[in-house]
Amino acid sequence: MTNARESVSERQPRRILITGGAGFIGSNFVHHWCNNYNSDRVVVLDALTYAGNRRNLASLEDRDNFKFVKGDICDRALVDELLATEDIDTMAHFAAESHVDRSILGPGAFVQTNVVGTFTLLEAFRQRWLQRDKPQSDRFLHVSTDEVYGSLGANDPAFTETTPYTPNSPYSASKAGSDHLARAYYHTYGMPTIITNCSNNYGPYHFPEKLIPLMCINILLGKPLPVYGDGQNIRDWLYVGDHCRALDVVIHQGKPGETYNVGGNNEVKNIDLVRQICQLMDELAPDLPISPAEKLITFVKDRPGHDRRYAINASKIKTELGWSPQETVTGGLRQTVKWYLEHRDWWQPLLSEEYQHYYQQVYS
Ligand code: NAD
Ligand code: DAU
Question: To which CATH superfamily is domain 15-206+237-265+309-326 assigned?
Fold first, then answer.
């Protein structure tokens, strides 16, 4: 079902370049787009870093109007060639280094991909947009995060689109830099960029290093469940399918130059979330190595600079574009836990030597 208000008969097919389309949110979005807009040309550009997985797109590879290109968003010549040969009119930019803990271990890759990579895409798109006589229906969607707004206290109001930027990690600082560039391209050049800032996503194809998949997988392996600090940090959980619908609406209905916050209306303390996952696993998984799974919960050293609370006020996108989240954290978590139970063949190969090395660095 399409969520754009533009009626299907009015809609002109788009030629969309999706960066980072082999990652978690990107691949969910590629499936969403292909399911809803059959006649659009869909090109995915992804460097297949440790977080990219071409198997996420396996069921789409045979489609005539789908193409996967392995490459770096910092490669200007490649991006120029793709924009020209594919006559791209829409960019959905997901590619990024996305994990806060990795940004603490090695911030350089974050500045390179998130700042320099976004700049490369913006410049290439601008040049092509000028050659195409600046069509106002072209779109450059820059997918960003609520982390750019910093950390909230327990009683602070949720982030709005006008909350000042206060990024606290190398990851969020690099995303903030890229947001400012995307914004500047609208204000300086009139290029139709739109920014979205969303809260924590969860759902299928989420890489094992992030909280929810990490807890699911460790329970299935009988390994400790590392909860940072006192476990009282709060995140606002957004089901990835809801996020994809929001981005669809923003591309079709959003106003160039604007920012839209996207949130799940699901603020949960980490420790409560981990306990819910344990209970779901106890219920759904036969023969857990350690049961009840809560026995595995282990409080570990806190993440440096750990933001205490994120919360999104998503009233702008609701009022102006008619989007709101549909999934509750209870329903979404049940679906997600089931997905990890049923897709051992997806996550097991991702626990590679590189992953074990990373795991050691963060948790030992
Ligand atoms: P992810 O880490 O799962 O996937 C990132 C993808 O980008 C991977 O496929 C990777 O191979 C690709 N990539 C990395 N560097 C690249 C480069 N230089 N060139 C081309 N491709 C490259 O990330 P995700 O969780 O799907 O996040 C997608 C976007 O959404 C990111 O921009 C992230 O900042 C943002 N975001 C994520 C969340 C979340 O909860 N996951 C929340 C808010 C915003
Ligand atoms: O808010 C949006 C952001 O959400 C995105 O921009 C990031 O790309 C995405 O990775 C995510 O960042 P977080 O740092 O919030 O997500 P993560 O899953 O790493 O952690 C969620 C919370 O759980 C956070 O408070 C840290 C805590 N945590 C995480 C891990 C991996 C633990 O307690 N233990 C862990 O082992």
Answer: NAD(P)-binding Rossmann-like Domain (3.40.50.720)
CA pair distance 148, 140, nearest whole angstrom? 19
Supply the residue whose CA is at minimum distance from atom 35 of ligand 1.
144
Per-residue pLDDT of 241-284, as tens digits, reads 999 999 999 999 999 999 999 999 999 999 999 999 999 999 99
Tokens of 236: 């606002």
- Here the contacts of 75-78 (C-beta below 8 Å, separation 24 or greater) are 75/120, 76/120, 76/123, 76/124, 78/45
CA 7 to chain centre: 27
Q: pTM value?
A: 0.98
Ligand with the closest atom to the CA of 270: 2
For ligand 2, the distance from its centroid to the CA atom of residue 4, given in whole angstroms, is 30
**CA–CA separation, 327 and 286 (whole Å):** 26
Q: How far is the CA of 131 from the centre of ligand 2 (A)?
A: 41
Per-residue pLDDT of 175-190, as tens digits, reads 999 999 999 999 999 9
